[in-house]
Amino acid sequence: MSYLWKEWLELSRSKAFWLLFLPVAAASLSVLASVKSLPAEHGLPVFLQMMFEMNVYIVPLLCLFFASFSVMQEKEQRTMVMIVAKSRSPLSFLWRKSAAIQLLTMAVLIVWYFILIVPVKFWFVFHVPPFLHFLLATMALVFMFNQLGILLGLLCKTKIQLISANLAVLFVFLYLYDFVLLYILPSVTYDNVRLFSFVYFLQPLHALRFYLETALGVFSLDYLSRTMKKFFSFPPELFVLLNIAVWGVGALAASIGWSRKGEER
C-alpha cells in the first residue's frame, strides 16, 4: 500500500502524464459533442464505439510513455536499486511497480469515463452492459500497453532509446502490422482464411475492436458470405483473452525473465 501511495504521489506530480491525459479528455468531449444530436435509442452504442476508436490511437501512447518512463525514472534516480536492495529481489520491485502502474492508470481513466457518462445518461437511452463492455475493452488495452511500456523501460538504457522504442512499438501496432496483412491478403483463400483470421486478430487493436463492435451490436455476424463466416468463426472473447495472454502476460513474463537475468549478472 505504501508503494501504491508513492506511485500516486509521483503520478499526481507528473506533468507528462497529465499532458498525455489531456488529449484523452479533449477527444472524449469532442466525441460527446458530435453525437449528442443522435436519436436517443441509438446514441449510446455509437458514442461508445467512437470513444474506443479514439482510444485506440491515444491510450497506447499514454500507457507506453507513462509506464516506460516511470521505470526509467526509478533507474535514473537509483530508487530501483534501493527498493531491490530492501526487498532483496528484483521480482518484488517488478510486481509492485506493475500493480501500481496498472491500478493508477486504470483508476484515472475509469473515474474520467464515469464522469463523462453522466451527461450521456440524460441524452441517450442508457444501458449498463454496453458501458461495461466499453470499459472492459479499454482496460484490456491499458493493461497490455502498460506491460509493454514496463518491459521497454527495463530494456532501454537511455531516454533516447526509450522514446525510439515506444514510437517503434506504436508504429508496429498502428501501421506496420496492417501493411504486412495487406501484403499477404492476395494469397488468402477459403482453405486458409481461418489461419489468416487468427493472425489478423492476434493484434490487440483488431481483437478489441471486433469484441466491442459485436458486444454493442454495431457489427452483425448475420448474412455473411461463406468465406467471411469462416473468417469470423472464432468467438471475439477468445481473441481478447489470447491477446491479453500474448501481449500483456507475455510482456510481464519477459520483464520477469529480464529481471532474473539482471539479478544473475
From TrEMBL:
Keywords: Membrane, Transmembrane, Transmembrane helix. The chain crosses the membrane at residues 16-35, 55-72, 103-125, 131-155, 167-186, 206-225, 237-258. This is Copper ABC transporter permease. The lineage of its organism: Bacteria, Bacillati, Bacillota, Bacilli, Bacillales.
